[in-house]
Design brief:
CATH architecture of the largest domain: Alpha-Beta Barrel
Radius of gyration: 23 Å
Structural class: alpha/beta
Number of domains: 2
Shape: elongated
CATH superfamily of the largest domain: Aldolase class I
Helix content: 25-40%
CATH topology of the largest domain: TIM Barrel
Number of strands: 17
Strand order of the largest sheet: 11-12-13-10-14-17-16-15
């Protein structure tokens, strides 16, 4: 998979934008960037698209600015010249895809059927857009097509909202989802970029789904751990369950048999997508301790600690 598309996968959501006036490009890009989505697909549906891409790419060089609704080779050239790092189209035009592949330009053509997917594979692609997602059968259609095309990944766009986003992203063949609910045209027209930033941050937060899973208490030995866990059981009815290194009281309290990370103990935060969570938190300056990473038998990350304590507690992310 292309490195640009890999990064889009870490971001998880691609805002799809149609701008009528290039003057809105900079404040809109800033709102998206601050809100936690350093990516934008600027559609070539308006005359302001090319200049908007140029402004976004110049003012926010770390942002993945792409061009959407690209229908011709001429539009590819204009978009790339303006600074677009990837190309998206509503359908699969073999000439456009062949041109992009030949110039090593990441391209995500629209597909909605097995025939489209086969054409994309023939052109050398392993990731495609699925459009219009909801109208074309939604996640059920993608799952059905993924059976025979197991190496292909999809970026569904069209009808994706905050409410059905997780339904799509939970499927491991979805690289990311395109959506416009956080960048509605009326908000752009009104100059409500603070609202767009808030909606963007809300979308990222909902996608990652951070949730307190348990609190760990450091004890000095197994006897002390058993006593502490037993106290929670006696008072609150939290059933004890002993493990190799700790004793749980219910599901929310873990008592360590010997002192572990954190001056006072540790806090476990669950997330829907741990790799995406790491990407987004690192953008905020959070540092992770790679030595604490735990993976399953397939090599997928399932837990990792932050490098710094918070309030005397070590904090680790765990995959829900």
């Amino acid at each position: 998979m292309n490195s640009i598309i890999e990064e889009i996968g870490k971001i998880g959501i691609v805002p799809v934008i149609a701008l009528d006036d290039a003057k809105d490009a900079k404040p809109l890009a800033e709102a998206l960037f601050k809100g936690g989505l350093p990516v934008a697909e600027v559609t070539f549906r308006t005359d302001a698209a090319e200049e908007s891409i140029r402004i976004m790419a110049r003012e926010f060089p770390d942002m993945l600015v792409g061009a959407g609704t690209v229908l011709t080779i001429e539009q590819v050239d204009r978009a790339v010249s303006a600074g677009a790092k990837f190309i998206v189209s509503p359908g699969l035009n073999p000439r456009v895809v062949f041109y992009c592949v030949g110039k090593n330009i990441p391209v995500l053509p629209g597909t909605s059927s097995p025939s489209d997917v086969e054409a994309a594979i023939e052109l050398g692609l392993d990731t495609v857009k699925f459009f219009p997602a909801e109208a074309a059968g939604g996640i059920d259609m993608i799952k059905a097509m993924s059976a025979p095309y197991s190496k292909v990944k999809f970026m569904p766009t069209g009808g994706i909202t905050a409410d059905n986003l997780k339904e799509y992203l939970d499927f491991d063949k979805i690289v990311a989802c395109g959506g416009s609910w956080m960048v509605k045209k009326d908000l752009v027209a009104a100059g409500s970029f603070d609202k767009i930033e808030a909606l963007t941050r809300e979308a990222v937060t909902k996608m990652l789904g951070f949730e307190l899973k348990h609190v760990g208490i450091n004890e000095t030995d197994e006897e002390s751990a058993d006593h502490t866990a037993g106290t929670f059981e006696a008072i609150f009815g939290m059933t004890k369950k002993a493990g190799a290194n700790s004793i749980f009281a219910g599901t929310g309290i873990e008592v360590m048999k010997t002192p572990y990370l954190g001056a006072n103990g540790h806090i476990a935060i669950g997330t829907n997508y741990i790799e995406r969570a790491i990407y987004h938190l690192e953008r905020q300056g959070v540092i992770f301790d790679e030595a604490t990473a735990k993976r399953d038998d397939k090599g997928k990350l399932k837990a990792i600690y932050l490098k710094d304590e918070i309030g005397g507690f070590a904090v680790h992310l765990i995959q829900k």
